[in-house]
Specification:
With 248 residues, the protein is α/β, with parallel strands linked by helices. It has eight helices and seven strands. A seven-stranded parallel β-sheet has the order 3-2-1-4-5-6-7, sandwiched between helices. Helix 4 links the parallel strand 4 and strand 5. Helix 1 crosses helix 7.
Length: 248
Amino acid sequence: MQGKVVVITGASQGIGASAARVFAAAGAKVVLLARSEAKITALAEELGGAAMALRCDVSVWSDVAAAVEAVTARFGRLDVWIGNAGVIEPIAKLAEVDPLEWANSVAINLNGVLHGMRAVLPVMRSQAAGTVITLSSGAAHNPLEGWGAYCAAKAGAAMLTRVAQVEEGANGLRIMGLSPGTVATQMQVKIKASGVNAVSRLDPSAHIPPDWPARCLMWMCGPGADSWLGKEVSLRDDVIRRAVGLVE
């Protein structure tokens, strides 16, 4: 990853912040995107001169387009885009959910993925190279009580990722998804507090640390993950965990 330009959405905490540290340690030039400008600015200072922080709401197309323009203006290229930004809210049954909260979830979890792809695919196509990774979830493929908005948006994002590889694979691009399983992040705190569905009842010891998916994301940028293009890597899979070096 030495010298590669890596952009991470939702980089203010959790998997995004851990990924920023992993990629920076590997020599990448890391760009942090999030709505919380103070948090990503502090993280960029921690990571040093190769890091760049840009306030960006992925649900707003103009924000994403401007961020990509700023990245290419500074670095001249964009090698990796990690679509990590996401929210679990609203946690509510379909008969009770607030339609406006539903729309906000879809705007971030699904439209945000499209905005990222729409902005970076032309840049990467002009380079004839680039990797796009979408953070997926088991919820994309399994219905869960109270998670209708999250499940539906993640399912859409998973299919969008597959379509992107079909359209851009011949142009030298690498596009795939990562389903990390349950991760010890602030999102799990919110899920636990909700008391809704089996995930909220998991013991905290069941969750993997955020640096596991972060390390997997870096592995996915290399040739070892080429057989997964257009597919979804599951970090629940022991074969993947061994390939990444998380377990022996």
